[in-house]
User: Which sequence fits this backbone?
């Protein structure tokens, strides 16, 4: 795949961006978890239906998608300039900008800021509260802070469930989508020191328990960490959109607010939000508008945090940006519509993808951030049947299926350059043979001469078991008995004379084209239809 | 009109009756069908497996086979292969640095239609029974294949045509727009996930009570048929599951030459 040098050395992404084991292996394990599949099917079906209804309300949905994609492409094309503009505006508004090349740098910056602003408690540790953020999940911030005597408390209900269950998120919007309410009750009883032992399983009760648990933290903690849905270059404004109000409390109550934002989250002006505030809630939660949209621009005297920081995170984004096809993945606004419609995600869940970005977008974004030569993520682009549901659902029109195929190719090119061109697997051998066979009709015809024999050797009711890689097919699908004769062979028997005529004409036309090209009298029409024979019109009118 | 048939490799080698049915339908409408003999395959198997360099000669062959042929329209009984022509061939040519082939591929793709597209948009078929004499007195569970649905935007073209076949009743399985799990090499690279998707599709189809499952892509139908057949092998006591049959064969069936559902014709879950 061609990459463009954009004036900066690219740094591969690090952090929680790697598959644990090859996707098929983990997927097989996850498929065995019946509870997981039930939870996932129920949840994704519900969100899917809601999204479809909300999207159907808008007559200009397709125009909105086009606008969203175009706006993001403009941002990506102007990124260096917009980042500088953002830095200037954010600084002018009283905030401090930090730049992080990768996960380690970002984590270290945040740790330094927390140590400067959060007091030590009686256990000799510091505390921060957090708004749900994919960027901080990506860099593994919570784990890093914990290792440095800082306790980060997630305040989003689902993130809290994941955190208390010592679990990992399996969805970017609904991180605990793999849990049902009975499991959540258990997690709360085990993980919340102040949980009521008579806690029920009603969503209302569970939400109330978390609310009580978190209230004190909101009122006493001095430092909050957030991500950002949008950053406005012109004004230096940051924004978080959410449903629970925990975000609003985190960005207003503490003294210090630290935001970790991927560099691709910028929009040029406040006006650009108009499109995205319609696209995002409908695509993510299936709502017309999310309940809480918070915007803050630096420090406002007497109101809200007095120390405002932003950590601008690269972590592989420049690498993805340099990829002329892959850069479209940076349009992603983390809405999760693609995973909610993905039949593969629905069956395996998010953990199978290893990376914090699961589902279709994860299968392209993860390798684009880490580099396709990172062996760990080489199976992710294959985690799709290419059904295209993700592309249809994407509010910023990321052509995920095409990108998956391009990444598959890129992976193969990398493998071949490292291990030589010789086919390695049975599938490689089969495809190499098929390429030769299928690039010529005559070779196909020859191959098809074997059909009567194949038919003779096949059981009448179809083929139930084959060796090798074909066994992966016959493990669950019977192959029909082949026909006695191919269509091609039937046709040429039926149309012997016509076929001869057809071949003669084709030869003449090809010769004519070659002659034309050689003589160079007039450049052959590059893509024009083949020159037609004189009798063309007669044929047409007959 | 002269209509060039792109049979597609799977129909050519495994489901020749689908191509014969396509020829029969078009001839019934008074058109001349030709078969450019150099044709082989659209190359999707290689493209989707990430073997762009190996796909290149396949794509080139297809473009040359069709640009040299004399026809008004080309047609294929497959949404997936037609979609590959427009969505993937130029990409492969460009990847290999062959800009000339890319623009020629775009030309060929622009003249190639999926069968229901040609019948509906170009040839004006709105009533299969009246215009083609189609007769098929069975309940049909219709499966829209992903690429026809999402890349070609075929919409209801195939099921609308099926609905106008004399005697046919068309029903939709639950989650009708969900992928069957085939995905080409996906089915062997991720066989467990593919099977999980197939299992749900098979159950949904059986629950319709239909006697056949029809759609526009032989590859998906082979996958679904193989799953239906396997289920029948494992649970022989249950009622015979629907056989899969391409919609071209349903449209081609008439009172004089009916398509009969008998054991003889059903192999591996597919009617051939």
Assistant:
């Amino acid at each position: 795949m061609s990459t463009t040098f954009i004036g900066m050395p690219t740094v591969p992404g690090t952090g929680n961006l790697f598959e644990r084991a090859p996707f098929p292996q983990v997927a097989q394990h996850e498929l065995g978890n019946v509870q997981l599949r039930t939870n996932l099917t129920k949840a994704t079906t519900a969100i899917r239906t809601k999204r479809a209804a909300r999207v159907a309300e808008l007559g200009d949905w397709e125009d909105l998608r086009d606008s969203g994609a175009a706006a993001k492409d403009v941002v990506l094309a102007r990124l260096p300039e917009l980042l500088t503009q953002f830095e200037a505006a954010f600084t002018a508004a009283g905030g401090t900008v930090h730049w992080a090349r990768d996960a380690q740098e970002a984590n270290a910056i945040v740790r330094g800021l927390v140590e400067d602003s959060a007091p030590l408690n009686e256990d000799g540790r510091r505390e921060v509260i957090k708004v749900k953020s994919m960027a901080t999940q990506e860099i593994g911030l919570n784990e890093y802070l914990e290792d440095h005597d800082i306790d980060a408390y997630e305040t989003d209900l689902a993130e809290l469930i994941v955190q208390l269950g010592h679990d990992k998120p399996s969805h970017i919007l609904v991180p605990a989508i793999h849990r049902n309410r009975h499991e959540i009750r258990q997690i709360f009883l085990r993980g919340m020191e102040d949980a009521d032992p008579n806690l029920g399983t009603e969503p209302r009760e569970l939400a109330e328990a978390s609310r009580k648990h978190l209230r004190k933290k909101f009122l006493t903690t001095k430092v909050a960490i957030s991500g950002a849905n949008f950053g406005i270059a012109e004004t230096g404004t940051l924004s978080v959109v959410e449903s629970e109000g925990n975000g609003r409390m985190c960005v207003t109550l503490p003294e210090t607010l630290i935001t970790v934002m991927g560099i691709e989250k910028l929009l040029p002006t406040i006006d650009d939000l108009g499109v995205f505030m319609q696209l995002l809630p409908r695509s993510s939660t299936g709502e017309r508008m999310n309940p809480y949209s918070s915007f803050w621009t630096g420090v406002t005297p007497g109101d809200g945090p007095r120390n405002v920081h932003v950590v601008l995170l690269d972590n592989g984004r420049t690498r993805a940006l340099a990829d002329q096809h892959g850069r479209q993945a940076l349009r992603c606004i983390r809405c999760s519509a693609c995973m909610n419609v993905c039949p593969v995600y629905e069956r395996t869940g998010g953990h199978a993808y290893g990376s914090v970005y699961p589902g279709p977008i994860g299968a392209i974004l993860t390798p684009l951030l880490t580099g396709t030569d990172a062996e760990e993520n080489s199976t992710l682009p294959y985690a799709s049947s290419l059904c295209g549901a993700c592309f249809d659902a994407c509010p910023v029109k990321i052509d995920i299926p095409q990108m998956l195929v391009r990444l598959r190719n890129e992976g193969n090119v990398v493998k071949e350059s490292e291990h030589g061109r010789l086919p390695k697997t049975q599938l490689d051998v089969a495809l190499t043979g098929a390429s030769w066979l299928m690039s010529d009709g005559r070779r196909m015809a020859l191959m098809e001469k074997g059909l009567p024999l194949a038919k003779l050797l096949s059981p009448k009711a179809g083929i139930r078991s084959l060796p090798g890689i074909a066994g992966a097919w016959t493990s669950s699908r019977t192959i029909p008995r082949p026909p006695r004769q191919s269509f091609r062979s039937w046709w040429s028997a039926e149309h012997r004379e016509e076929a001869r005529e057809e071949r003669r004409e084709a030869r003449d036309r090809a010769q004519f084209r070659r002659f034309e090209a050689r003589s160079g009298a007039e450049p052959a029409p590059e893509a024009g239809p083949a020159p037609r024979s004189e009798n063309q019109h007669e044929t047409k009118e007959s | 009109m002269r209509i060039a048939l792109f049979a597609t490799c799977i129909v050519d080698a495994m489901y020749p009756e689908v191509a014969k049915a396509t020829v029969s339908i078009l001839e019934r409408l008074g058109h001349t069908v030709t078969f450019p003999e150099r044709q082989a395959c659209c190359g999707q198997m290689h493209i989707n497996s990430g073997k762009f360099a190996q796909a290149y000669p396949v794509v080139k062959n297809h473009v040359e086979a069709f640009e040299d042929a004399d026809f008004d329209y080309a047609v294929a009984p497959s949404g997936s292969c037609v979609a590959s022509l427009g969505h993937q061939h130029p990409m492969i040519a460009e990847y290999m640095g062959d800009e000339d082939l890319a623009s020629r591929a775009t030309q060929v793709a622009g003249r190639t239609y999926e069968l229901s597209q040609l019948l509906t948009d170009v040839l004006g078929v709105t009533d299969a029974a009246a215009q083609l004499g189609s007769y098929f007195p069975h309940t049909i569970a219709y499966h829209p294949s992903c690429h026809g649905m999402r890349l070609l935007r075929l919409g209801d073209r195939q099921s609308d045509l099926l609905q106008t076949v004399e005697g046919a009743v068309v029903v939709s399985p639950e989650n009708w727009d969900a992928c069957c799990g085939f995905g080409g090499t996906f089915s062997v690279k991720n066989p467990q996930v593919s099977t999980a998707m197939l299992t749900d599709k098979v159950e949904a189809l059986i629950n319709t009570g239909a006697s056949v499952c029809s759609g526009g892509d032989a590859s998906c139908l082979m996958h679904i048929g193989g799953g239906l057949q396997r289920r029948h092998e494992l649970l022989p006591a249950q009622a015979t599951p629907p056989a899969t049959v391409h919609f071209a064969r349903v449209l081609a069936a008439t009172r004089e030459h009916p398509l009969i559902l008998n054991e003889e014709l059903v192999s591996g879950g597919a009617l051939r």
